[in-house]
Amino acid sequence: MRERKLVVLAGSEETRKTLVAQLSEFIGTFVQIESYAVDEGIGRVIQNRVVLLSSYLIEEEVAAFIGKGCHLITAKRIVNFHNIDQLFTVPKGTEALYVNDFPETVNEAIESLKNLGIDHIKLYPYFPGKKMVKDVSLAITPGEMELVPNSVKEVINIGPRLIDMTTIITVLDKLGLLEEKQEEVSTRYIQTIIQLSRRLAVATSEANQVSEHLKKVVDGVHDGILAVDRKGKITVFNGILEKLLGFEGKRVIGKNITDVISNKDLVTFIMAEDEKEANRYFTVEYADVIVHRFSMEAEGTIVATFKNAVETIEMERKLRRELVKRGHYAKYTFNDIIGHNKQLLETKEIAEKLAKTQLTILIQGESGTGKELFASSIHHASNRHNGPFLAVNFSALPEELVESELFGYEEGAFTGAKKGGRKGLFEQANGGTLFLDEIGDISLKVQARLLRVLQEKELLRIGGSEIIPVDVRVVAATNRNLLELIEKGEFREDLYHRLKVLFIHLPELRKRKDDMEALIRYFMHQSGRMDVKIEAEVLDQLKRYHWYGNIRELKNTIDYMLAVCEDHVIRIKDIPNESFFQSKRFGTNERGVKQHAYSEAPDTGSTIEEQELITVLQIIREIEEKGLGISRQRISEFSRNSSLPLSEQQVRYRMDLLQERGFVEKSRGRLGSKMTEKGRNFLSTIYTGE
Ligand SMILES: Nc1ncnc2c1ncn2[C@@H]1O[C@H](COP(=O)(O)OP(=O)(O)OP(=O)(O)O)[C@@H](O)[C@H]1O
């Protein structure tokens, strides 16, 4: 069922061909379409396929050919709008036969043409075997030319009806391609709508009668259409838009857009003079809509199409949900950055200004200082806020995956490459922001490639030859000293300058202790524990700590203390300390820790840090004893079995400290680290009772 194959079953050959042509245009490049028509003969029993039926009318006829494991979809069809304007040229009052194969299809079509405003032609049903045939000289048929009686002199063939977009989305969904292909398909779909809208707008200026018809036709494709002149006077406002915006039955044509649409951002977006064509997501009234606007200079008209993201285009919604699920939506805004410290406020102010530019930003700050929080807020405050926000952390990504993750690849680029290739993060973040965390960790090879993308704003996928333009704002972050890396030849100077066009340094928590109380209150509020009091002594003690893990560590500590405190009061005993580590976190491990062991290490301001360092060293020794390589990932994994689980990020800064003390030797990249003699000696001194 998951194969990328679709079987189309239609009644006639002509319908089959039209539907296949339409589907090929939308999904033909990645779905193999097999098709049969009842009148040509189906000739085989279909099994394990997604099967699209052209109409419910053939359900019975094809039933015998549907084998096991099939998923049936009955197409919703809409009048073939590509050909329909031919009917507008027919003089009012003309009589015509509507010709098709069965009474049902004929009556259905006459009804839907009426709904589309084709009421100036008097249509008489005609199908093979019809007894009383009206003697008229014109026939209209959706592709059934051979059924037209000979007495008719002129035939207008409007072609078989097309498949509705929602059906195409359902097909993609059933083929498991929705997420991967929705963008491509929706772009093609939008283009069709744009073509229609253009015709509509041109027609408006030409003849009102025609525009009325086209307006109704456009309704048939489920999108709202708005056209305004340069002064904002509304010339087109179709029924779908009336429904979307809650204007049913009200007269809006001729009014000014500012009097009709209350969402000021939306009005500004539509009336923008400097932009020719643009897409944006809006919430209007109760609906999420994707608005596409373009201006037609010659006609002095601006046209906006409104796609109801919720109902008509299910796929956008699904994608959005997917994005939220993967954290691709920028979660934070500048309001979420807590603190009144002077340096922080200045940094925030600068970042807010920088957000409005399109330039690359480099954020430097220790682990846990809020780099991602700032990146997310910058995205939110930028004019890209409706686009995606994607984040990648290079320290967590294995070297060999970095390139394909960032730039994508073509099918067959390497062993194991996915069929059809894959979009990289740059392509996925198109129109939005890409947050490159721990940029200091990428190899020189990736740096070279990244530099090219930043300079040229286009990329080649791995193994690809097509140049793909990318419109992505990059915010990079590092907790390392890039200048030092440049000196060591590990970071390209040109890339550094490219990234550092705009620079933000985030202050360490130990340099903004004046914010600690506000942060603590904020985290307690976040946990819904505002009822808990903190003894003054506790605050004093926390303020004395160095917080190498910065705000993240503070947050974790608060969470811990909230969990262990009693009677809604956090007391000294609730601070994670040496006894806590031994008795609670180390569980059954009752080893004592000699006091002198601590004095050997530089002052970190707290025993939390010390004990955690010891634990990391112990884990390293355990991994070494197993003959495995030491990596942050592995240490983090092993730590999960201890009562002190650490994330890779937490491991990282503890490893930095261990290296500073000469207890471990870290190698760059993912080559692994090892414990030094000094580290081993240190570890051996701290146990008693072994
Ligand atoms: N000023 C702040 N106000 C409120 N919360 C903050 C603040 N700064 C950081 N945090 C919180 O601290 C945690 C760590 O922040 P974030 O992930 O942005 O840090 P980072 O610098 O990107 O860390 P790393 O370098 O380890 O990835 C998050 O939960 C974030 O919401």
UniProtKB/TrEMBL annotation:
<dbReference type="InterPro" id="IPR013767">
    <property type="entry name" value="PAS_fold"/>
</dbReference>
<protein>
    <submittedName>
        <fullName>PAS domain-containing protein</fullName>
    </submittedName>
</protein>
<dbReference type="InterPro" id="IPR003593">
    <property type="entry name" value="AAA+_ATPase"/>
</dbReference>
<dbReference type="InterPro" id="IPR000014">
    <property type="entry name" value="PAS"/>
</dbReference>
<keyword id="KW-0067">ATP-binding</keyword>
<dbReference type="GO" id="GO:0005524">
    <property type="term" value="F:ATP binding"/>
</dbReference>
<dbReference type="InterPro" id="IPR058031">
    <property type="entry name" value="AAA_lid_NorR"/>
</dbReference>
<dbReference type="InterPro" id="IPR002078">
    <property type="entry name" value="Sigma_54_int"/>
</dbReference>
<dbReference type="Pfam" id="PF08461">
    <property type="entry name" value="WHD_RNase_R"/>
</dbReference>
<dbReference type="InterPro" id="IPR036388">
    <property type="entry name" value="WH-like_DNA-bd_sf"/>
</dbReference>
<dbReference type="Pfam" id="PF00158">
    <property type="entry name" value="Sigma54_activat"/>
</dbReference>
<dbReference type="Pfam" id="PF25601">
    <property type="entry name" value="AAA_lid_14"/>
</dbReference>
<dbReference type="InterPro" id="IPR035965">
    <property type="entry name" value="PAS-like_dom_sf"/>
</dbReference>
<dbReference type="InterPro" id="IPR025662">
    <property type="entry name" value="Sigma_54_int_dom_ATP-bd_1"/>
</dbReference>
<dbReference type="Pfam" id="PF00989">
    <property type="entry name" value="PAS"/>
</dbReference>
<feature type="domain" description="PAS">
    <location>
        <begin position="210"/>
        <end position="265"/>
    </location>
</feature>
<feature type="domain" description="Sigma-54 factor interaction">
    <location>
        <begin position="337"/>
        <end position="563"/>
    </location>
</feature>
<dbReference type="InterPro" id="IPR027417">
    <property type="entry name" value="P-loop_NTPase"/>
</dbReference>
<dbReference type="GO" id="GO:0006355">
    <property type="term" value="P:regulation of DNA-templated transcription"/>
</dbReference>
<dbReference type="InterPro" id="IPR013668">
    <property type="entry name" value="RNase_R_HTH_12"/>
</dbReference>
<dbReference type="InterPro" id="IPR025943">
    <property type="entry name" value="Sigma_54_int_dom_ATP-bd_2"/>
</dbReference>
<keyword id="KW-0547">Nucleotide-binding</keyword>
